[in-house]
Amino acid sequence: MANGVLFTQKRSVNTLRYSVVVLLALAFTFPLLYLVSGSLMTLNEVTVYPPKLLPTTINLQNYVDAMQVMTPRIFGNTFFFTFGILILQLILSFSAGFALAKMPFKYAATVVGLFAIPVFLPTNVSIIPLYLVTYKLHLLDTWGGMILPIVGSTAFGTLLFRQFLVNFPDNLVDAARIDGASWPRVLFQVVLPLARPPIASYAAVTFLTAWNMYIWPLMVGHTDNLKVATVQLAPLIAGGVGFYGKIPPNVTYAAALLSALPVTLFFLWAQRWFINAIAGTGNDS
What we know:
- The protein is mainly α.
- Helix content is 73%, strand content 0%.
- It is built from 14 helices and no strands.
- The longest helix has 37 residues, at 2-38.
- It is globular, with a radius of gyration of 24 Å.
């Protein structure tokens, strides 16, 4: 009898717990679900009151129209901007983290402390000085001005890789050094193959951050040749001028989903290593 009561209570608690989780999941995902639904509606359906949650018919023409706004040139610019930042930051951060963790030198602790300072500073503090330096170097409206100032913000990545590499086995590094391997060879042939979890974690976060960056590309890249997806999308919210005179909201929804698709695919590709790194296992299998 007692076991039956305990079983009933446990089942009730589990039911309540799962119900709360499902409700919270629906609350958090509802905006995304409505975005997908709205991107498949006609203009009349998406502007009707009270709002409709589901389209009467699937209207894929919205995505065809959205591709006239989010052109291949826009996506090409965004990929170039994002991967330029990702690759250069990854090289600098990983190399600096390795040096701080495995190449002992005087005042290494002080250098680590200096790297920690920018992590706690808000972006708004540095964006105006950064713009002035870019202007003085005549890098406005250039890819160098778009990418290089952001690449210099490597404090978070350096500390991330340094923390991982501090726990990296010293005997592997020492064995490679005894065999005559140079520091670059140790870095790229010994450490790099075993550091895929933190690299994937950092790549996922950096890719997402760079892809969604808006203020800096808007300030520095004024020409259409440098325009990225976020800068192209922002005016659509206010009914930006386009091939309809004004872009309707259903096409705007479709354009937003097209812009989010590369980030989603990249995260799905990197999630295995991303989760392993968060769990601290260091295992990529």
